[in-house]
Amino acid sequence: MAQTDRPQNIPHWYSPESEVLSLSSGEGARVTDDEGTEYLDFVAQLYCVNAGHSNESIIQAMTGQARQIPYVSSSKTTPARDELAGRLAERAPGALNDVFFSISGSEANESAIQIAREYQDAPKVLTRWRSYHGSTYAAGGLSGDPETRGKIERYAATTGIAKFLPPLVHNSPFDGDTPEEIAQQAADHLEFVIKNEGPDSIAAVLTEPVAGTSGAYPAPPGYFERVREICDKYDVLLISDEVIAGFGRCGDWFGINTYDVEPDMITFAKGVTSAYAPLGGVLAREDIAAEVRKDGHDLGQTFAGHPVGCAAANAAMDAYEDGLIENCQELAPYIESELRALGERHEEVAHVHGRGLLWSVEFGHPETGEPFVDTRVEPDADNPVGDVREVAQEHGVLFGGGRPDTQVLLSPPLCIDRSDIDEAVAALEAGIEATF
């Protein structure tokens, strides 16, 4: 037996400078640590506990499935898996009627680009700078976040990925005077990258419809409609990464539904089970799926489409259908107005943006709007934005940090109410006042 004074579990995203919170229970939108301190979980742990903690219906569905048959090989079918595939196809936009299951969001994105490359007989995939698509080797290579990509490629380079600039309105790489002008410039830039890389070499554009940990920013009006036109013009597939944006997070079943756009594939994970069990996958157009079926698929993942995960997902979808997505839609204007009012009260808040129940409060110097610390350039500098989150935690609310860490991210369970928003905004304001 090992004898040691130190913890033997190594947390993910671990930093030796920060204290690791140990949580032992949760109910609804709240979690409790080992010492009995309760927190309002306004990050849904990792942007994923969309139905809230300790949802009894999901727990019962998982228990029932485990008693019936706990595991069925991913090379076979089983009722829970087939039911979930049918329900996902019903909720997906357009002709995305076929599902290839995975375990996580990283593996969903890897599966999607593998399918796209085979279907298109082309090697390259385009993704945005400042994006995050996972931390396995291929998914880390897809990510435009330099911290993730740099760690992944420190010893082994990833290949077949080209980058394009994001359609940011705040601190934009483009100089348009209006969001519509920025949308046009950003789409024109994407078209330039496609032509520069060579359209015949490009299998797909993979992008989040609303950015997740890279900042909760939605695209400006007209951007995705133009991207769809460009992809059609050059015969490039459009893949919507819905690992965070899906399952009610942005006010609809999928984030891309908040635009008038139909992608060729959707990747999903996280909220599909409300994070009660690992599960991810790819929704694909019928003709793309037909090619996979015709030629066969010789690769797979042992735990893809795990029956207990599928049971959890079916129950989670019941919960979303039973008012949680409507609750998100009803609360979205209120959280937006409260955060914008917060920004008006504090000049250190440079910008507020988001959609549904996914929001970013971005900080910057009042005179310039530039970040107090750009962690991409000054990784060891003291970052006041981290202090804002720490003080908010002391006031009983957990928030997320973005990429880059110039912002506080809000991504609560969909079961919250107005009083929870009031409590979260008050804690965030306490963090701002104590820090600045």
Characterization of this structure:
By secondary structure, the protein is of the alpha/beta class. It has helices spanning 44-47, 56-68, 79-91, 105-120, 137-142, 146-152, 179-197, 223-233, 286-295, 307-345, 384-394, 418-435, and strands spanning 23-27, 30-33, 38-41, 96-102, 124-128, 161-164, 202-207, 237-241, 265-268, 280-285, 349-355, 358-363, 397-398, 400-401, 407-410. The protein has a 7-stranded mixed beta sheet with strand order 4-10-9-8-7-5-6, with helices on both faces. A 4-stranded mixed beta sheet has the order 1-2-3-13. It has a 4-stranded antiparallel beta sheet with strand order 11-12-15-14. A hairpin with a 2-residue loop joins strand 11 (349-355) and strand 12.
CATH third-tier fold name of the largest domain: Aspartate Aminotransferase, domain 2
Identify the CATH homologous superfamily of the largest domain.
Type I PLP-dependent aspartate aminotransferase-like (Major domain)
Question: What is the CATH class name of the largest domain?
Answer: Alpha Beta
Radius of gyration: 21 Å
